[in-house]
Description:
- This protein is an alpha+beta fold.
- The protein has one domain (2-210): Glutaredoxin (3-Layer(aba) Sandwich).
- It has 9 helices and 6 strands; from the N terminus they run βαββααβαααααββα.
- The chain has helices at residues 12-32, 56-64, 67-83, 100-108, 111-128, 135-144, 149-157, 162-174, 197-210; strands spanning 2-7, 37-42, 54-55, 95-96, 182-185, 189-192.
- Strand 1, helix 1 and strand 2 (37-42) form a beta-alpha-beta unit.
- The radius of gyration is 17 Å and the shape is globular.
- It starts with a strand and ends with a helix.
- The mean pLDDT is 97.
Amino acid sequence: MIIDLYSDMVCPWCRIGKKNMHDAIMAWSSETNEPVDVRYRAFMLDPTLPPEGKPFRETMEAKMGGAARLDPMLQRVTDAGAAIGLTFRFDRITRMPNTLLAHRITAILPEDSRRAWVDAAMDAYFEEGRDIADPDVLLELAAGIGADAGDLRRRLDAGEGLDETDRDFAAAQGMGITGVPFFILNGKYALSGAYPSAQFLAAFRKIAQEG
């Protein structure tokens, strides 16, 4: 089974949905001994952000209509994350980052490193409040999962990863994807949103029954 996962590193529900998906994959693998491959696809919640990003609170309050609406939403995310073992520390986040560089790194890294990379970027942002629009932060995180930071910097400077991310953006637009997380199973079944792991598992079983 193959899952194409469209997500953004600054999307909290993507982090929750990805964790639920991987929990379901672990259960499925134990149940059937069949592998599930995940292909990480780039999506940007706000492609209009400047490369350096914007202030987090100011940007989010403008989007949500003020602190009175934003704070309960952040609390719902925090509670939903805690229920499945994820920590969200929105009090530490100061920047709303442009994630193009982070997505380009996903494209450049070997496939077997991409899950660890996306996890590292999301953990750094949501738990530590690190600015994942900052190239130095990104390269430090990449080195932490075993990547060669110097080689990665050279490849980014040479423009690598842009073609892949552009293809993902175009594919998402072509499919009418306007929100993430968005999961495509075996190229024909779509799930939109942070589904519980039990629903992912049910979808895996249905697909298997259909052959």
